[in-house]
Amino acid sequence: MTTQKTILCVEDEDDLRSDIAEELEAANYRVLQAANGSEALALLEKNRPDLVLCDITMPGLGGYDVLKALREQGSMVDVPFIFLTALAERNDVLTGKQAGADDYLVKPIDYEILLATISARLDQVARVQTSAVHRAEESWQEILKASQGRTVEALYKATFAFDRFLVGVVIVDEAGAVRVMNKEAQRILAEEDGLGASQGILKGSVAKQNNKLYSAIEKAFEEETLDEIISFPRLSGGRPYLVLIPGQRFSPEERPEAVVLLVIDTEQRAKVSGDTLVRLYNLTPSETRVALMLIDGKRLDQIAEELEVAQTTVVFHLKNLFRKTDTNRQADLVRVLLSVPLRTAAD
């Protein structure tokens, strides 16, 4: 089922705004209405629309002010923005484009052109999102497919598919001995800041967490649906490392020679804002905050305490995250969130 797209319509003429909203709702869009720039900014604090339609000339904050504020919010830098205006001169159009608007529609509004323009812009965003998600998922599936071959040699090339993600990939045997790792994993383990490779064995600085790690690795050789997440605190006091351990037993007859672990430096991930997650999954600001805290390895009660909300509110956001990422378990959700592409092939 296609998720209903949300359009923010900012227009100070009440009748025109109502007419636009009516046309958009008839076309199966959800519409947020604002009579001026101040109302628009208030709505943007709590909502992330899929597209903004905005008049230029309004009392108080005008359209350029709204556009500037939107583009300064990292999580909404790529939301399509369309100006609605009676200013039809070529210089007016150029000014709007140069300010960062994606399109410029002149009043009186031709509703067929309006709907066609909106559809084209949303389709463009969807193509970018789908491409990015597919690239991430293809890389992950390539690793799992290679691991089904049960040989470290088969895993070697697939592992480096993750070099353009901020995700370390480590291949270990049953004893936790490192057989292969990509560049990000090499960087993480070389820091020896709470997680490293002692005598070739993957090992953290906390004995209790190491016991969990080795137990999970042992299970990964036997189970297909395992999805363990183990947090290792940094000696420096920064954000923790996370080790994600998926099950990799593909059949009773096929036991892997080694298993794939994903190692995440959440300190490094924190340097990347929630922009990528917002773009890929159309998250609201609250959902993005919860998602980033889950990436940090925080429990639901910790998230509720830090956000100063009830745990039921966090659960509500979690359910939305499940729906938007097509997952149904917290471990699967974190794996998806951590597998989004955060570097291009050129990086």
TrEMBL record:
GO terms for biological process: regulation of DNA-templated transcription. Residues 6-122 form the Response regulatory domain. The keyword DNA-binding applies. The modification 4-aspartylphosphate is found at residue 55. GO terms for cellular component: cytosol; protein-DNA complex. PROSITE patterns: HTH_LUXR_2, RESPONSE_REGULATORY. GO terms for molecular function: phosphorelay response regulator activity; transcription cis-regulatory region binding. InterPro entries: CheY-like_superfamily (IPR011006), Sig_transdc_resp-reg_C-effctor (IPR016032), Sig_transdc_resp-reg_receiver (IPR001789), Tscrpt_reg_LuxR_C (IPR000792), WalR-like (IPR039420), WH-like_DNA-bd_sf (IPR036388). Residues 276-341 form the HTH luxR-type domain. Keywords: DNA-binding, Phosphoprotein, Transcription, Transcription regulation, Two-component regulatory system. Signal peptide: none annotated. Pfam families: GerE, Response_reg. Gene3D superfamilies: 3.40.50.2300, Winged helix-like DNA-binding domain superfamily/Winged helix DNA-binding domain (1.10.10.10). This is DNA-binding NarL/FixJ family response regulator.
